[in-house]
Design a protein that fits this description.
The chain has 13 helices and 2 strands, in the order αββαααααααααααα. The chain is mainly alpha-helical and 286 residues long. The termini are far apart.
């Protein structure tokens, strides 16, 4: 009898420790998601009866909002691709070449993000403004004759997006490279493969899971980012996050905000599926 109780207890320990995570996920992910879906499609008519209607979603089937969805997709794709190009060699160097400096380098990568996000934004203000660090350096070395207008533009938004999301790409890639069998590279080179052939046939396919994880860790939140475009872009262009925040914060427009959230989530799902299969197809053809 005691043995049976002990077996049941031991089998339940993993669930016991994992239960708070499941409760947290249910309360702060699934319940809000169900509320958003309910607000989007379930409405009360004049007779007081609840009915399903897609009118709030259909209302957003306008060229302006589709341009916002496409532009947000391009911004997220640009951010993810740029972060991937920058992060891949950095992760490789940290994993294989850093030696005893591996942990300090990872520490330095994470430390800036212990500070408040607004401090990062204001720091970049001083870098990108007309009389800031960037223009001062470029003027002194003679590359430009007058200050560039970078702040309050799409360029400033792109720079800040890359800066903010870069660690989300580096860390998954580093985790894959850290488990990578270096002997595969040595065997490939010993068998006469060039460095580019080794990268195409060995390194990229073996690190594809890290590429996918990092790419979508950047792409998905970047698609709905609203703080960076609002602060760095000067509100010159509307993005998905901007539209959602404006509608959701209005007492009389929360239903439209929920509808646009649902619509943008569906569009984002399509983007993710298309990009994933595109990436997988490229890796297969390498």
């Amino acid at each position: 009898m005691w043995k049976k109780i002990k077996e049941i207890t031991q089998d339940g320990i993993p669930f016991f420790f994992g239960a708070p995570v499941l409760v947290w996920q249910a309360l702060f992910l699934f319940v809000p998601l169900l509320l958003i879906i309910g607000l989007s499609i379930i409405h009360r008519d004049a007779a007081g009866l609840y009915r399903i209607s897609l009118e709030p979603i259909v209302w957003f089937m306008q060229p302006m909002y589709w341009r916002i969805l496409v532009w947000s997709g391009w911004l997220a794709l640009f951010t993810a691709v740029t972060c991937l190009v920058i992060s891949y060699p950095i992760s490789y160097i940290i994993a294989f070449k850093a030696g005893r400096f591996k942990v300090p380098l990872l520490f330095l990568l994470i430390v800036p993000f212990w500070t408040n996000f607004l401090l990062h934004v204001y720091a970049w203000f001083y870098v990108l403004e007309r009389g800031g660090f960037l223009n001062t350096i470029l003027l002194k070395i003679g590359l430009i004759s007058e200050p560039l207008r970078v702040l309050n533009s799409v360029h400033a938004t792109g720079i800040m997006m890359i800066y903010s999301y870069l660690p989300f790409m580096i860390l998954p890639l580093y985790a894959v490279f850290d488990r990578f069998d270096v002997e595969l590279i040595e065997a490939s080179m010993d068998l006469g493969a060039s460095w580019w052939q080794t990268v195409r046939k060995i390194i990229i396919p073996q690190t594809f899971t890290g590429i996918v994880s990092g790419f979508f860790l950047v792409f998905i939140p970047a698609f709905a980012e609203f703080a960076i475009p609002e602060l760095m872009g000067g509100d010159r262009r509307m993005f998905v996050g901007t539209v959602i925040s404006q509608y959701m914060l209005g007492a009389l427009t929360i239903v439209r905000g929920a509808a646009f959230t649902l619509l943008s989530s569906l569009v984002l799902s399509v983007y993710v599926v298309v990009i994933y299969y595109f990436m997988r197809g490229i890796v297969k053809r390498l």
